[in-house]
Amino acid sequence: MSLKPRKNPSTLVANLTSSAKFFAEEAIDNALSAKEKAEARWPLAIFHLVISLEHFSKALLAEQNAVFIHEVIDKPGKTTSLQKTFQRLTNRDIYGLNLSPKDMKRIETAVAYRNDVAHGTIGQNSKALEAKFFEIFAFLRDFLRYHLQIGADELASRDKIDDLLAVQKQISEIEKRAKESLEQHDVCWNCVECGKDFLVELDGKCICLFCHNDCNVIECDRCCQNFPEYEIYQTDEIFEWEFSEGRATLANDFGITEKFVCQICYSNIQKEAAERAYQDELDETWFYTSGILDARG
Ligand SMILES: [Zn+2]
Ligand SMILES: [Zn+2]
Fold first, then answer.
1. Overall domain count for the chain
2. One domain for residues 210 and 91
3. Which of 79, 121, 154, 206 has its CA 20 to 30 A from that of 16?
4. Among 73, 99, 74, which Cα is nearest to 86's?
5. How far is the CA of 52 from the centre of ligand 1 (A)?
6. 45 alpha carbon, distance to own chain's centre
7. 217 vs 200: CA distance, rounded Å
8. In this structure, is residue 6 part of a structural domain?
9. pTM over 0.85
């Protein structure tokens, strides 16, 4: 956290800031109408919010020096990506922003969500999108407060901000309930939809206690424990295959009989296969050299 005094804004900084505010207000409007009547607006809310974060962070970077927002500093034209903007802000010689690895990950997922919206590949789970919106919003709010000295009430009217925070409060209620239910489970996994560690096994399925995303359960062929399907790996990727005429034939399965395994068992099997391959090579060399020696008699 820091509350460094701000310099007088240049035109560039002022333009970036006002455009960032415009996108933030759009994001808030979309979030409120998504909550009230049109869930399909969550992707739009996220899209505008990430662009707002992008412009605000560039404003802070441009405040240090206008050339920093160029992808290549001495080449005006293409400007920095969101990740690059934050990378530069964390540079002590530029600004010295303190970002936790969790925040850096948040920025990466924010970019991924923005791209998914732009490419039409965003998921439609409204609870997950809502949670993601508030995760980015909470980050943006702190970033604005501590680094640009901008309060949330400068982004939209007080009423809108109050409505939004009421929604956020509902989310924390949902999260609180999910945490309570989680206590009845010994094992949980990370949910791919909402990114929270609330995925548990329930009645033969995996379900996220927060966003209700569900998926199949698969038993690991080696350790016999159950896992969500996306935590299961196929061992045939480790085997040796021969390709001819567009067909693959199994050349060596290293004696591995398990097909579907969990991540830990997969990496153990990988090691075993590598050792096996090494041993096979040694045996082959031994066979070859002993053959030569036998021939020499
Ligand atoms: Zn979830
Ligand atoms: Zn396993």
1. 3
2. no
3. 121
4. 99
5. 25
6. 18
7. 10
8. no
9. no
CB 130 within 8 A of CB 218: no
120 and 93 in a single domain? The answer is yes
* C-beta separation of 189 from 206 below 8 A: yes
Domain encompassing residue 288: 234-296
Looking at the structure, tell me whether residues 134 and 211 fall in a common domain: no
Instruction: Report how far ligand 2's centroid is from the alpha carbon of 266 (Å).
Output: 7
Distance 222 CA to ligand 1 centre (A): 27
Determine the distance separating the centroid of ligand 2 and the alpha carbon of 175, expressed in angstroms. 30
Q: Could you read off the pLDDT of 60-96 as tens digits, one per residue?
A: 999 999 999 999 988 888 999 999 999 999 999 999 9
pLDDT recorded at residue 5: 60
Q: Are residues 135 and 207 in the same domain?
A: no
Q: How far is the CA of 227 from the centre of ligand 2 (A)?
A: 9
Q: In whole angstroms, give the CA distance from residue 288 to residue 283.
A: 8
Give distance in angstroms: CA of 118 to centre of ligand 1: 22
The closest alpha carbon to 191, from 178, 180, 204, belongs to 178
Please indicate, yes or no, whether residues 116 and 191 belong to a single structural domain of this protein.
no
